[in-house]
Every structure is written in C-alpha cells, then in structure tokens.
Amino acid sequence: MKHNLSGLGDKIVSFWALNQRWITIICLGIAALIPPLINMPYITSIAINCMIFTTLCLSLNLITGFMNITSLGHAAFYGIGAYTAAILATRLGVGFPFTFIAAMLTAAMAGLLVGLPSLRIQGRYLAIITLGFCEITRIIELNWMSLTRGPLGIPNIPGIIIFGTRLRPVQRYFIALGMVLLTAYTIHALMNSRIGRAVTAIRDDQVAAEACGVPVFRYKLLIFSISSAFAGLAGAFYAHHISFIDPKGFSFAQSILYLGMIILGGMGSIPGSIIGAMVLTIIPEMMRGLLEYRLIIYGLVIVIMLILRPSGLCGGFNLKHIAQRNRFAPGGGPRSASAEGSDG
Predict the structure, then answer these.
(1) What is the pLDDT of residues 125-144, one digit of tens each?
(2) Residues 100, 96: Cα–Cα separation, whole Å
C-alpha cells in the first residue's frame, strides 16, 4: 500500500510539474469565481481563512521547507504583525495599506533580532529557541496591558478602507487572494534566483556550502526575516478582517497547526503549502459537529501521512526529475540506455 501511494504521489507531482501553468490558471480562476458566485457569508469567511493560512504556510515553508530550519514560533510573527496593525489603526488612525507595510517591517525586524543570536545553532536547539520566543511573545501580549490590553484584546479594529469605502467580505477576499499571490510569487522568484541556489546548497549540505564560500549565516538571516515579514502581513490582514485580536490566536498550538499543514502538503513545495492549508482549513469546518473528535481525526491524518508519504502530497525537491522520468517512462520504469541516447 505504501509503495502504491508513493507511486500515485509521484504521478500527481509529475502531472503538476508538466502542466503547472494551466493548472495554476484554472485554480486561480476557480478561486476568483467561487466566493462572488456563491455569495454566502459563511463560504466567504472560510475562503478568507484559507487565504490567511495559505500565506502563513507559504512563509513558514520558506524557512522550514526550503531552508530546512524547523521553526516552532511562526505564530509569534503572525501575532506581531496583527498587533502592529491593530495598534496603529486604533490609536493612531493609520489605515490600509500603511498598517500592512508597518506589520511586515516590524515582523521582519523581530525575525532579524531573533535570528542574530540563534541561527548559528542547528537542529532541535534552534526549534526550542523559536518555541521559547513564541511563548515569550504571547506572555508579553498577555501582560503588557498599556499596549496590548492583555487578555481583553484590542476591539473595534477598522476594516480595510479604500478611497473612503469599507470593503465588504467578498472584496476583502480578493485582497487576501492578492496577498497569497504576492507571497507565492516572491518565494518562487527568490528560489529561482541566485539566492535560491545558495539556499538549496545550504539545505543540502551546509558545511560544503560554507566551504565553497556561501555566506551561510547571512542567507539564513535573510530568509528568516523574509519569512517573518510575510507572517506579519498575514497578521495585519487578520486584524483588519476580524476586527478583534487577543493573545489566544497566536499561541504555540497555532504554530504546530501551520507546521502540520506544510507537512501534509509537502516540505519545500509552493503547491504543497497551498493544498495543505486549504485541506486542513476546510476539513475541520466540515467536521465541526464532531466537537473534540475532529482533533483526533486531524492528528490521525498527520500521523498516517508521515508514515505512508513523509514528503507530503506534493513534497520532494526533485519535481522536474520525477516529471521527466514519468514522462519518458510511461510504464513507470526507468528509461533504457537506447532511449536516453536517442534524446540528443
């Protein structure tokens, strides 16, 4: 069964790699049309949540999937972005898009400050540091009453207003979709640039990359800051969308949720981040009537995925290799030497 599931996963990845342009266009068309056509507040709310979680998963996958640094504190940067936008909007009257920019800069600065002393550490120790940072941030949000109002939260956060008009939920959905597209495009462009090649070298063999002259710490710090910035962007949108925030929404449990999403979708995969976020946002909503049992089902899905397909639904770093292999070997076996020789 495990072998069959792995083969099916390779075929899915192959189909995606060979047809990703058309699949992307079709998916974007569906994503753009469903909320306006259905026009139901509940469906629109779920769609917006999918976009928020997708942005968070894409940003987390940049550091955990592409750079291979396990972060257990991503919710902290999400919360920093949300509180930055909320405080600026409610106390200083700053509106969109300046709160979004400020949230990204503040979260990126927080990522820089956390990364400077900690990114020289590797493995589980770095994961523990990010976990500790997440808890410290939550405690600050919970106890700094004069700034964050503590457990009372920040209410009455203004919605997204453009040219004096407050956007309706369907209109906010398109802002969220644009946020996802911006994040995905930035990560795609980054990983297909000189920086991306350096990141891949560091992920595959950090010692060898450093021996070849790659400034490992500098690239780690850059990627960590960019990842934090996009988490802050998602937090700013969340604050304006929901109009109320409190520390409960930015706990360690939320970081584990985002990590579970990218494990399900696939480490180091942009499509995997999107699929994992959507699946683990929609399915819990469908199982809302099961109350506490839905958490058990959610945990079982993650465990089964780790056992049967550890790389996730769209995981694996050699997508082009898998695609070409399956394309030239329809029977599933490797190409013969004569077939390889005839390609030239």
Answers:
(1) 888 998 999 999 999 999 99
(2) 7
